[in-house]
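---------- Forwarded message ----------

FYI, see the Transmembrane protein record below. Original note from H. follows.
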Amino acid sequence: MTFRAFNQKYLEPGSQYLMILGIVALCQPWNLFLHRYGMTMTLVGLIAFMVATKIPRDAQPDEGNHS
């Protein structure tokens, strides 16, 4: 597995899930630890997503008509 494929399969979705988890952690009132680090999780996820999307994807073969 190349780094580009690893990035596309794991890093991009992982950073999106981290941003969502950070927002949920900020909005929940029960756990002070999650509330305290919710903004940090959101920012780390945002930065990771910005970096991960700058890595170009693998070239996909064209599945159109081959003449």
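H. also flagged this: Residues 2-54 form one domain.
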